[in-house]
Each structure stands twice: as C-alpha cells, then as structure tokens.
Amino acid sequence: MERQVKIAVMVSGGGTNLQALIDAEKSGIIKSGKIALVLSNNRNAYALERAKNADIETAVVIKKECGSQEAFEDAIKDIFEKKNIDLIVLAGFMSILSQDFTKTYENRIINVHPSLIPSFCGKGYYGLKVHEEALKKGVKVTGATVHFVNEIPDGGKIIMQKAVKVLDKDTPETLQKRVMKIAEWKILPASTELVSQKILKGEI
Ligand code: GRF
After folding, report:
1. Quick check: CB of 189 below 6 Å from ligand 1?
2. Which whole number is the average pLDDT over 24-36?
C-alpha cells in the first residue's frame, strides 16, 4: 500500500461529520489518508462512540483540567507528535485554537463551517446561530465551506464550497439538517481527500 496521510479528527459533539469521514474512508472516497485518531475536548461527545465503533483510537483532552490554553494545546500537540499526525480535521470542534497552534500546523488544519464564507462566519457564528442569521437576512442560498484554519476564525483559504437552497418553510433546524446532508457531509470528506493528495505530492 502506498503511503497514506495520518489524519486526526477533532470533535466536541455528535460527530455526524466524523461519521461521514469514517464512511468515506470505508467506501474509498478517502484513499490518500487514514483516520488514525479522534480527539475530543468533551468526554461525553457521542463522536467518541462513533470512533470506537469504527475501531479508531480516541483521546480526550479537557481544557479546564489542563489549566490554561497553552497547556491544553501542548497536551494536544504532544499526542499528535507521538502519533505522527500529518493532517488535522476539525469536525464540530467547539474550541478556538490559538495562533501559536495554527502556525505550528500551517496548511495542516481544515475545518467545515455551515455557511458560504464570507457570509455568516467568524466569532460567535456556530451551531444553529449561523442558520438563524441566514434566515433572518432572508438569503435564498446558503451552504457549507471547508477551509484551512489560520489565526482568524473562519478566515483561512477556502478549499471547497457547496450551495444549498433555502426554502420558505425552513426553520433553523431544518436548514441545519439540509446543509449538513447536502453539503457538509459531502465536501468535508472530498476536501480531506484533496488535501491528503496535495500533502502526499508535496504541493503544500
Ligand atoms: C457542524 O454543523 C459543523 O459545520 C460545525 O459544527 C457542527 C458539528 O456537527 N462546525 P457534528 O458534530 O459533526 O454532527
């Protein structure tokens, strides 16, 4: 087997995007990378169960228990170094990472955001809030974006986007579900494969 990129997925919650990545690896959509680790900052994240069901190693690092942002990130870096992680995929990871961390892994961290960046993104735009604001504004099209992570929240280079129509009868909840199904669960695995290929080719 040719070399594969070693992927760590960082999660905080339900992990439906993690599930999409696991399924994509099984079906061969992701072939240039392998999920080697799932790391959560929340012990009760259902995403950890999904990882265990797929026989993927898990780790939990709790910021409060580390005492500071720096100690939290040092603990995470330590785990990644020991596992020789090449690529970090944020899949519903609900904690902001410092500039020091994002600089350490330049072009090696990607994130999925549930809007068409630069709309409805940046500090405070997460979860249902993104879709509430999209409906308030009355946009007719929204979607999801996968981007590289830098020191600006949702500000890194865009990798892929997919548009989703907003329906008159949409609530934040129905819109969130449709954006996940039509956009997030498709472009996160596709971007993971694309970025893994670029890493293997030495292009980034
Ligand atoms: C997704 O909407 C993702 O875009 C955002 O957080 C949510 C995570 O959902 N960053 P899940 O844990 O993958 O189900």
Report:
1. no
2. 98
Q: Establish whether 113 is a catalytic residue.
A: yes
Side-chain half-sphere exposure of 193, counting CA atoms within 13 A: 16
CA distances from 73 to 69, 77, 121 (A): 6, 6, 24
* Atom 7, ligand 1: residue with shortest CA distance: 92
Asked whether 63 and 69 are in contact (CB, 8 A), the reply is yes
193 pLDDT higher than 80: yes
Q: Which pLDDT tens digit goes with each residue over 43-78?
A: 999 999 999 999 999 999 999 999 999 999 999 999
**Cα separation of 5 and 84, whole Å?**
10
Ligand 1 in contact with 178 (CB < 6 A)? no
Tally of residues, the chain:
204
CA angle 155, 120, 8 (to 5 degrees): 50
Nearest atom (ligand 1) to Cα of 45: 12
Q: CA 3 to CA 34: how far, in whole Å?
A: 10
Question: What's the pTM?
Answer: 0.97
Q: Whose CA is nearest to atom 5 of ligand 1?
A: 92
- The torsion of the CA quartet 110, 114, 119, 125, rounded to 10 degrees, works out to -90
